[in-house]
Fold this sequence. Notes:
Blueprint (H helix, E strand, L loop, with lengths): L7 H18 L36 E2 L4 E3 L9 E2 L5 H6 L2 H7 L14 H4 L4 H8 L12
Bound molecules: iron/sulfur cluster (2 copies).
One iron/sulfur cluster (SF4) binds next to helix 4.
Amino acid sequence: MQSLSLKKKELVEMLNIVEEACEEYGISPFVGTPIPPCLDGLRDYKFLLKEGCMAGKGLHCAIDPSGGLKVCNHSPTVLGNCIESDPKELYETSEYVRGFKELRYTPKMCEGCSKLEKCKGGCREAAHVLFGDIKAPDPVFCL
Ligand code: SF4
Ligand code: SF4
């Protein structure tokens, strides 16, 4: 799967192009999967990367075609089935969701970082899917 990923240089170039387009056209797009602000080569964006990881904040979730409730679209973990159970209750009583709120999936490299609360160590679920370990560093560091 990683062979399909952008190289780090390409990722930074792409963000710079989008940032310039935002400036020119006065738009503020939402980058759905936040990129860790400590990644080499990123600048202080005026429009992009303002949001951190939303998992566990109670503001969004994902539902798969079978009714499986997930913390977000990247997550491989099904919290329960929305057709059989109340999704709000599934979400609010989930130990897995609580793990995001309590920053229990923090990679070692992020311990003590001042941006951890918002960034959560980058995309935890991308690390979970690609490396099979929710506490692995964000895959963007391997590009
Ligand atoms: S929390 Fe981790 S990934 Fe995010 S900025 Fe800090 S060190 Fe980088
Ligand atoms: S785990 Fe990744 S995809 Fe899921 S909400 Fe956080 S940043 Fe977005």
